[in-house]
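Crash report, auto-generated. Payload:
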Amino acid sequence: MRYFRAGIVVLLLTFVLSLTTVGAQDNTLHILFNQDMRTSDPHIAYETETWPTASLFYVGLVKLADPGTPIPALAESWTISDDGTVYTFTLRPDLKFANGSPLTAEEVKWSFMRLLNPETASPTSFMFEPLVGAAEYLAGTADDVPGIKVIDPLTIEFTTTAPVWTMMQRFALPPGFIVSQEGVEAAGDDFGRQPLGAGPFMIESWESGVMIVGKKNPYYYEPGQPAFDGFDMQLGVESSVEILKIENGEADIALDFVSSSDYPRLSADSVLAPQLIASEGFPNTGYVIMNNNKEPFSDVRVRQALSMAVDRQRLVQIKNGRGTPIGGFLPASVVGHNPDVVAPEWDVEGAKALLAEAGYPDGFTTNMISTLFPDDVAFAQAVVGDLSAIGVTVELESIDTAQFLDVVNQKSDDLSLIMTNWYMDYQDPSNNWEPLLQCGGSYNWGNYCNEDLEAIFTEANKIPLGEERWAAFSAFEAAVAEQMPNIPLIQAVDYYFASSRLNIQTDPAVLLRFAEATLK
Amino acid sequence: MTAYIIRRLLGALGVIFGVATISFLLVFLMPGDAARMYAGPRAPEETVQRIRELWGLDQPLPVQYVRYMGRAIQGDLGNSTRDKRPVLQAVVERLPATIQLAVAGLFIELLVGIPLGILAATRPGSWIDQLATIISLIGISVPQFALGLVALYVFGFLIPIFPLGGYGTPLHLVLPAIVLGIGGTAFYSRVLRNSILEVSGEDYVRTARAKGLSPRRVLTRHILRNAMMPVVTLAGLDLALLLGGVVVIEAVFGWPGIGLQAWTAIRNQDTPMIMGTVLFASVAVVFLNLFVDVLYIAIDPRVRLT
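Recovered output after restart:
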């Protein structure tokens, strides 16, 4: 009897163990995400997790080989008019959505019209607002967008009101992904969870907060891709548990960046460190916005003094070495960055002298807000400490993201300093100037507006992508750095953690290249 | 009895209406902007304004309130502003996971808490009483997220008996239910211990002993039946609270319950979803409360309807 019981126990344990050993040796891509997934709709997505998720189900006319080089995707070729306003794409023949229905120029036009339809309420529609008639259509005062023209079933033409040399990069981003009209109409409000596109995978099931399952799209334009029969994405997995699951071979990659608390252990482990994937494809810059509308920040000497007072090496230490100090408005890895624009020396005495020259020998008292993200709070506290060394007393308030966005978008004069960071949408210097520092820019929470710099920018931005443009922006960055409109801190590098069997690269447009990923 | 229940039901509806109104006002007063959260920090102000107009968020509070309540009475709780899904559907989808965890957690609490409480009360000062006190202390003082992460690391990673979080099979339920239950175990064992010691001094217990009944019979027939009353009340309310969601446990174990849903909604200013989860929680509390009251009458004849 005793042996019988022991046998039962052993059998049960074996059964339990077999259940828990999820097969990472199978041909399914196992993805993890820390929270529930909001949507896969590429026209609604605008987060570091929704963009790669959208890229599982969708693809656009082009992809990016590197930040500045478009390569064929749904379009096999294209031409750009000499004046940079007309983009004519030739689609591959016989394209199909994942359900087998044809994908022609008409479907492409419908998809862009949906993006620009005010009813869609797309947060990324502004990227295609330069198309002729798009602004009117978005405002609800026009029925059509003349800037999108179907020439024949395989040819579609986009016309912009003025040259926008970053247009090709925008076509590679999720707002440029092609959604199926049939899919949108069938799913209605639930389209975010019932995706239908022409990307590498197609949906099988979507259980909110639990799991998304997809299988290989047999009609994907690139033969042999994806290398997986399907994928599953487990949702709501606690960040440190994500790491354990990947270490355990239960999962292949998490859509979350490795946290500051997990990074030291992983990077120090000779086996696990090679599984860290740096996100150099989409640079992230941290900076402090100063309210340029009011004293004392309207004085360039004060802005320079504050910048000099910041010990950027300490910020790099806070990020466990995952970053480099910057001194200009561009990340060092972006073309057009001026290598001579470097982070100012940490110089407390020099900063004090500059402050005194500006009329603040005893410093002043001001305020700063940040979100509650751990890195933001740590950075804010470090900067507040640095500024106190030059007599600038900062009252710091760290608040929830919802409240933070509400407060900063009011652009109130009560606000003085804002700790924040910026991930580039596409890697062109204009993407760090237009939203962040241009007069009236959507992310320009410090109300910076310098007409002289604006004029230089406008000229530089007219130049097509290439050496001449980068040289112009390089000079522009030096001019901006002299004015120090905000305090550049560091260019941070985030890391993904992948299983030892997965071969995947980061992508400048959608963060991760799932379609091209393979098993080692 | 029927009249009593009907009266209580009508009162319950009033409470739920009140909760809906107050929470609507509170959500309205919350700093932040649902349209901005939906559009993200990068979207231009014009885009955000268009979304506000589309969702009617630019309307004054009374207009928004009347619209919301008008639809809610007809069973339409609106669509989430975060993922556009119908709120009712989203809440209903989370129900199975929520109920499973709540019931399993309560089960563990009672399964361990009641015997521990009895042992601690019948043998005060013994090693069992001390062990019960230690478990109580651990359950009360160790934060649930720490306990959860340690449990996952030990029983999911080092000794892989259970899955590393997630939802789906009974095995997935074991660790979260135990971690959830441990805190409550401590609570119930202490309550029951004190209740037993209090009841043990009553006249009818002395009489029972004097009649020559065995100690076991005195305990089960006379002491426990009376000492369990506070436990029944607490268990009913506890279940209602657990149904409202256990955010920390759900987050640590990746359990798709209603607590995480509410938390995500609050963080994203998702007004319809916040209202939906609050309404669900209030319905759970009000009706389980009513159920416990009715149950009380059934098990304790001394309680009379007033």
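Post-recovery validation: The first helix of chain B runs from residue 2 to 29.
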